[in-house]
Amino acid sequence: MTARRRQRGWRGVQAAASLAACTMGLAGMAHAQEAAPPGVKMSPSEPALPAGAPSPVSTRSIEAYASRSKLSAGFPSWREAGLRGVYETGAHLLQGELAGMERWNESGRFVGLGDRIVLSDDWYTYLAAGAGDGASYLPRYRVDGFLHRKFLARRNLVGTLGAGYYRAPDGHIDRNLSIGGIYYVPEHPLVLQGEVRFVHGSPGSVNARQQFLAATWGSVGATTVSARYSWGREAYQSIGTDAILTDFASHEASASLRHWFGKSWGVELAAQHYSNPTYHRDGVTARVFWQP
Q1: What is the pLDDT of residues 230-266, one digit of tens each?
Q2: Pairwise CA distance, residues 20 & 38, whole Å
Q3: pTM for this model (two decimals)
Q4: Which residue segments constitute the domains of the chain, with CATH numbers given?
Q5: Please, what is the Cα angle at 234 between 229 and 238, to 5 degrees?
């Protein structure tokens, strides 16, 4: 492979990871404190492009998605559909999400807003807020903030520190701190990612820790493949209006395939498996995205 082709591949996977994060970065906010959906962080991470390199990432995107999950232990199936968008203006990358869902025989709606702010060539931050409509499994409201720093001569390592606050409709509160990193492998269209999150839940003073590892391979405009695995303990999860789970172990594995059928649009298919001592869940998600 020539140096030029290797460079295009490296920049392409950075763009792919960035686009996936930007369109999905708010998605985890709609969920209670369970393992996040595939490839989703509480903060989207931008590509660590070499100094002076132009960003290949579209500054606008719209995505529509639908998902369905089957649960064990006699629990009803889940359904969800929504819209997500990204728009860049100046140093701000604005994001929004509207979602409607059916879980635990209860319908719910969620709205989320986020803003990635470029502070300098090496630093950027991400702030997000979201709220549910009162459904027991959605946050009454939550806020999250992250600080990102690029490292190494090629700025291909990104470190992240984050903090968040989650209030459930029943008054339960989770506070979390996280530390993570993203490494863009030089000369290869590969991105590696990992994060550890510490959660303190109250009432009950429950401490929990979760971690995940993820990888993305491919290039924007063609095909990207992503995989993610998370494991650890959760402090709190609502499983309906009259039941909650606290201080329990869980894990989730997911994979997705994203393919462009034209210069500005494509589809993504994803599969997820989540498990805890009470139930397990298997789901599929289909997305259509447009990036003018």
Answers
A1: 999 999 999 987 788 999 999 999 999 999 998 899 9
A2: 10
A3: 0.83
A4: 3-290 (2.40.160.40)
A5: 110
